[in-house]
# Entry
Amino acid sequence: MPLHFLSQSDLTPKTIHALFERTTVIKGERLSDALLGRSLVMFFEKTSTRTRLSFEIGMTQLGGHAVYLDRDSSQISRGESVADLARVVSRYADLIMARVYAHRTVAELAEHASIPVINGLSDAEHPCQSLTDLFTMLECKGRLEGLKIAYLGDGDNNVAHSLMLGAAQVGADLWIASPGELQPDTWFVDAAAKLSERFGGTVTVTENIDQAVEHADVIYTDVWVSMGQESENERRLELLRPYQVNRKSVSGAKPDFVFMHCLPAHIGQEVTAELAYGPHSVIFDQAENRLHVQKALMVYLFESSRGGE
Ligand code: CP
Ligand code: NVA
# Structure
């Protein structure tokens, strides 16, 4: 059975830390032949800049190559099943990465694939992002345990969900400040609580921005309207307007806080230009780290699927 990475919680804290050590090495060496001659198939139902580029360039830098497939130009658009896609890709390639609308699609790919499947974003989670975010926090702050992270904005969101699981796993204290209607899915609140009990992190959901931001080491936000939610645009903007990351909302954070955003950003909505491009911002280091972390992840999943050979 291959190992898959569909959820942030698919990796144990021990594996996360080992991956981060490997990421540091990979970041320093840039090119290697760790996946020489190997192939990654990338299946996209939604648009992407960072995910596509970092996976494709990452495979090249590891000596392999990546194939881009989307719904419209593949036989999926004419009714071929996701199960058959998984079976066929498994005969050609060594890894699959998929960006999908419904999380069940990536779960179905994993169910029928005989090679590792990576979730490149679903409606429920964005685990490649949360893994990268934790690595970036570790780089910036030198620790994860006890770090206070304040996430402002849409809590019922793939990025927030994965971050909740990840923070709990590494012993960080995550505060999600969101309006009542857009707080995280209860399944993730419960899952994060269970992980917190085991690994010592905490996840607190509140409507109170000041409480969430007070003495925070990291301020994080994501878009207010995620891919596929365009019809909810007006309502979301109205609900989320008070949760903007701006000079006033971050005033209670530690003086050396870092600002993070998974990108793409909507400047003037979830964050002001002053914060996104100001001295506290690490958004482009964060984007760069997608490349390094995912290279380590692909090598780990590939080696694990081969029994560590
Ligand atoms: N953060 C992220 O996943 O970016 P893309 O949507 O551009 O891939
Ligand atoms: N929550 C955003 C993340 C984009 C990387 C979305 O799903 O559109």
Q: What stands out?
A: The two ends are 15 Å apart (CA to CA). The chain has a mean pLDDT of 97. Residues 71 and 77 are 6 Å apart (CA to CA).
